[in-house]
């Protein structure tokens, strides 16, 4: 799954990668981003709108959903294209969430120890996501997850769907709505680029937010 991530890369750098004006990217570095908060994302408001970088609520609940409907933060790649709750957004409201890495927890001697997962070269990553307008009129999103690959399998059975650079444009293309076509052109980042290390348990508290949260710790330290 993906329940916590970090985004601290220079915002204009993120904008440039998408071919957007640098002034569109304005946010503070965050080292411990939890669900139920505003997060930067790239999307189109509708099929005819230009691509933009704005903020979305991390929690997906379409405006047509019943009051007691779930508000998931993730959607699995296995069901996102077929589930009644997600398939409309998958076809028409795909988006990208920029990140520098994500956190996951592994059981060690009966305790859950946090790890930070990211690219080996420390380049930003792009998380595939979907969004829908909520009942309150704001966009809410869910990050897609897939079975963990490569070294990430050591930490958790699932991981966010991290796209390779060539998949960013087609993922955001409003004309691509067919599931099989998307399967052929969308590719995840090769697992060989992913690395991880243990980090402080301070990350367990969403209120914590500083660069030391992603620094490696030795066994037994905090």
UniProtKB/TrEMBL annotation:
SUPFAM superfamilies the UniProt entry points to: BB1717-like
Lineage top rank: taxon: Bacteria
GO terms for MF: lyase activity; peptidase activity; single-stranded DNA binding
GO BP terms: protein-DNA covalent cross-linking repair; proteolysis
Annotated TM spans: none
Keywords: Covalent protein-DNA linkage, DNA damage, DNA-binding, Hydrolase, Lyase, Protease
EC number: 3.4.-.-
Family: Belongs to the SOS response-associated peptidase family.
Name the UniProt record assigns to this protein: Abasic site processing protein
